[in-house]
Design goal:
By secondary structure, the chain is of the alpha+beta class. It folds into 2 domains: about 70 residues, no CATH class; about 240 residues, Fumarylacetoacetase-like, C-terminal domain (Fumarylacetoacetate hydrolase, domain 2, Alpha-Beta Complex). It is built from 9 helices and 20 strands. The chain is globular, with a radius of gyration of 20 Å.
């Protein structure tokens, strides 16, 4: 099932996207708390999904998808963690960091050679030992279609194409073999990044902060595809386009750390709750940094993942 959150007449609805349009599950069963929001639906578990399928089988009225106000499917996640699941992205990013740093030197060629020899820009051993992640700002989630006002402290605008899973079942010390049971569904995640701010703060060793934390810096959507409908999340075409030009055409099968690996690691001595979002990390070539190309004022970024859909946002200077 493809689930969404939308507004109609100023009222927020939980909906299901079908071949003929959008069904308001909230309107179909107004007495049910489980249909009152995406968070309540996720918390209700399997009974909510069974009831939703029954509603769809009753041939309810649909609304054209272009006549509703699309909202991020999970407007306020319980928590957001973003991992580094793709080795190609990490290697490409370090390569770009070398080139960018060398460009600022008096003798770029010599500087580049020295930076390579230093070993500072190699994938750290710990990345191969365990999934790495940071906690993102859950209040910064925005929807596809919204114009994103870039933060005033940054001049280098970038995007990041990621797949994300949504936790559906509470758990602690979850075993890798059981981790799939805790996934509710999947969505697209655009981790917008202020690269100049990231370069300034990264030596501080506390992870991303103002490079990622600004209003509307996380785009989720357009829908959450429930786990039962997405048979293999590790064989999905992932594409990024800027103003219609393809910058990335890759596949989720290149992932190194799976969501099962991530869930097993994150849940060690820590409880995961329904409604938490876990990002896969950027797929290889899925951001401007890897191409040494960045966004300009007014650029439109489209991120597409097979079987989930497309999210599209324009970035503008404030």
């Amino acid at each position: 099932m493809k689930l969404l959150t939308f507004k109609l007449g100023g009222v927020e609805h939980l909906g299901a996207l079908t071949d003929t349009g959008v069904v308001s599950l909230s309107a179909a069963a107004p007495e049910d708390l489980m249909f009152s929001s995406m968070q309540h639906f996720i918390e209700a578990g399997e009974p909510a999904l069974i009831r939703a399928y029954a509603v769809l089988e009753s041939s309810p009225a649909t609304i054209p998808s272009d006549q509703v106000g699309w909202v991020a499917p999970l407007p306020l996640p319980a928590q957001i963690r973003d991992c580094l699941g793709f080795e190609e992205h990490l290697k490409n990013s370090f390569e770009s960091a070398i080139k960018l740093s060398a460009m600022a030197a008096d003798e770029p060629m010599k500087a580049e050679q020295a930076l390579r020899a230093s070993g500072r820009f190699a994938v750290p051993d710990v990345w191969y030992q365990q999934p790495l992640y940071y906690k993102a700002n859950r209040f910064s989630v925005a929807q596809s279609g919204k114009d994103i006002v870039w933060p005033a402290y940054s001049e280098v605008m970038d995007f990041e194409l990621e797949l994300a899973c949504i936790i559906g079942k509470k758990g602690k010390d979850i075993k890798k073999g059981n981790a799939e049971d805790h996934i509710f569904g999947y969505t697209i995640y655009n981790d917008l990044s202020a690269r100049d701010a990231q370069m300034l703060e990264s030596p501080g060793m506390l992870g991303p902060a103002k490079s990622k934390d600004f209003d509307d810096s996380i785009i989720l959507g357009p829908v959450i595809v429930t786990k039962d409908e997405l048979d293999d999340p590790y064989n999905l075409r992932m594409q990024a386009r800027v103003n219609g030009e393809t910058w990335c055409d890759n596949n989720s099968n290149t992932i190194h750390w799976t969501f099962s690996d991530m869930i097993a690691h994150i849940s060690k001595s820590e409880t995961l709750h329904p409604g938490e979002v876990i990002g896969s990390g950027t797929v290889g070539l899925g951001c401007g940094l890897e191409h040494l190309r960045f966004l300009n004022d007014g650029d439109t970024v489209e991120l597409e993942i097979e079987k989930i859909g497309v999210i599209s946002n324009k970035v503008i200077r404030g």
